[in-house]
Amino acid sequence: MVEINADTLSGPTHHFGGLSFGNVASTQHEGILSCPKKAALQGLEKMKLFYELGVPQLIFPPHLRPLVLTLKQLGFSGSEQNIVESVYKSHPDLLLMCSSSSAMWTANTATITPSKDALDGKVHFTPANLASNLHRAIEVAFSAKVLRCIFADSRYFRHHQPLPSAYEFFDEGAANHTRFSNGLQLFVYGRKADSTIRPTKYPARQTKEAQMAIARLHCLPEEKLLFFQQNPAAIDSGVFHNDVISTGYGKLFLYHEDAFVETSKKIKQLERHFPDIECIQVTKKELSLHQAVTSYLFNSQIIESEPNEKLLLICPTECKQLSFLQKLTPHPFDDILFVDLRQSMMNGGGPACLRLRIEVTDKEMKAIHKGVFFTLQLYKEIQQAINKWYPDTFTITDLLDADFRKSCKVAHEKIVSLLQLEL
Questions:
Q1: ∠ CA 77-80-84 to the nearest 5 degrees?
Q2: Dist. CA 389–CA 215, nearest whole Å
Q3: b/e burial code for range 100-139 (CB count within 10 A of at least 16 → b)
Q4: What are the backbone angles phi and psi of residue 358, rounded to the nearest 5°?
């Protein structure tokens, strides 16, 4: 099995709209001037790092924004210019929602099951419905199309429809799912229908019912399933996804002591299902919930570099001042690397938010659309496109300029073309 890393490029309308209630970084940075070109280049440099470390890297295209189709669905009519002007005057927040570049956080795109885990022997994809926020929900159709285009061979890949966009089935994708090397699947949810244990300040964005449905769709054996509930106090502290408070890879699980409801019992349950696992607890004395949210330590990525097979922790630069990191080397991590993702971090997305993990066999790897694999030549071409077509800064008033919107379309079309995608 080979683990592939997939990232989505942020778009020319990347902004800090404060659209995500419960995401502390998003709301704290609302209204700050954004830098779309810098955001896209920072994401691209992260992909280059992973490529250089020997991790197969896929590039997903940015989503076209503003999404005028959604505005038409909401009753706005006329030419595109008239629609944008009308929405800007009457509902500027709606215009920001339809111009968000939040699809860059690819961990929310889907839940994926490797073929070795599924009883039918296929790689399963279920796009997340992201029904808890409009600016995320409008990503689903294009994300599903991209996945079907890149993983098109039905001999190996099976694509499911997103779950119903209903309160009972809120689904935020792989950000709340961890697969361990023995095939054990850990699904983490914020609420379930038969429980009153829920956050009181911020919404719970993932339901157990949604994850149980995905487990059924993906033909996962029951003995390989674990469902843990997030600690409501953690959600109310800004832990809107589980990947902000725990992370796992292979035989390793790094978690905060306040991550789950009855954390100690849950860890014992995990250890019973996977005796070889190494669970590393971070106590609240070592790192408070507030520090976990502001540093995004748990949103770091764990990877094995090739060919030396070193286990690395890839952290956002915001983690550099954490003294706790000294306890993580030389064991379990051989080294800790830092990446500058400030434009993403200001909206609440660290390294792990920006990627989707996909495990495949050699045959499955060969069946993936070749145009999206990171190469140095593709890197240079996309870098040139970003430098040419992305703005240095962005404000909502830029959307009133037809030439600006045209440049957004050109950037989107250029990158889609470079990736050789027929969308």
A1: 85
A2: 41
A3: bbbbbbbbbbbbbbbbebbeeebbbbbbbbbbbbbbbbbb
A4: -135, 115
The Cα–Cα gap between 290 and 105 comes to: 21
In DSSP terms, 189 is beta-bridged to 229
**pTM confidence score:** 0.97
The length of the chain, given as a count of residues:
423
User: Which helix (H) or strand (E) segment is 355 a member of?
Assistant: strand 355-360
Q: How far is CA 212 from the centre of its chain?
A: 20
In this structure, the strands spanning 252-256 and 278-282 are: parallel
Would you name the residues annotated as active-site residues?
172, 241, 353
Question: Angle formed by the axes of helices 376-389 and 36-52, to 10°?
Answer: 170
As to burial, measured by CB atoms within 10 angstroms (0-12 exposed, 13-18 middle, 19+ buried), residue 165 is middle
Q: Which amino acid is at 104?
A: M
**How many whole angstroms separate alpha carbon 304 and alpha carbon 322?**
23
| Signed CA dihedral, 258, 5, 116, 210: sign only | positive
Peptide bond preceding 36 in cis form (omega within 30 of 0): no
What residues are paired with 252 via a beta bridge?
A: 249, 278
With residue 25 as reference, give the H or E element that holds it: helix 24-28
Under a CB-based contact definition with an 8 Å cutoff, are residues 208 and 173 in contact?
A: no
Domains of the chain (ranges; CATH) run: 2-65+100-224+343-418 (3.75.10.20)
Structure tokens, 365: 């790897």
Stretch (H or E) spanning 228: strand 225-229
φ, ψ for residue 71, nearest 5 deg: -65, -35
In order along its 423 residues, the chain shows pLDDT tens digits of 999 999 999 999 999 999 999 999 999 999 999 999 999 999 999 999 999 999 999 999 999 999 999 999 999 999 999 999 999 999 999 999 999 999 999 999 999 999 999 999 999 999 999 999 999 999 999 999 999 999 999 999 999 999 999 999 999 999 999 999 999 999 999 999 999 999 999 999 999 999 999 999 999 999 999 999 999 999 999 999 999 999 999 999 999 999 999 999 999 999 999 999 999 999 999 999 999 999 999 999 999 998 778 999 999 999 999 999 999 999 999 999 999 999 999 999 999 999 999 999 999 999 999 999 999 999 999 999 999 999 999 999 999 999 999 999 999 999 999 999 999
- Identify the DSSP state of 231: P
